[in-house]
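FORM 7B: Structural annotation worksheet

SECTION A. Query
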Amino acid sequence: MALGKHLICDMYGASALVDAGPAKDVLRRAGVAAGATVLQVAAHDFGERAGFTGVALLAESHISVHTWPEFGIATVDIFMCGSAEPEKSLDVLLSYFRPERHVSRMLSRGGGMAGEA
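SECTION B. Predicted structure
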């Protein structure tokens, strides 16, 4: 039995990659859409149109996004446990960044036996 789902996604040809302000609201909405409890949202703008990093701290774990406007790329990391649904968070983020294409993968986390390396 896995302890959580870890959804990672790379977005190519994405938009909205330079302004961390609106992204904070989107991270909050992405957490709520998944049925998660949003504890805190923070973002750091690297200035001069150099992208940003944003994180939603969840009771169920986290959502993070990193942007590279010079390459048109956003990367997303969504890790959630319990009944939260990371796929619903991804839908919100895809609607916001509107990539031309994206590649995502779901991983099961914490399902190994105790003592495994």
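SECTION C. Observations
The longest helix spans residues 20-33. The CA atoms of residues 32 and 38 lie 7 Å apart.

SECTION D. Sign-off
Analyst initials: ____
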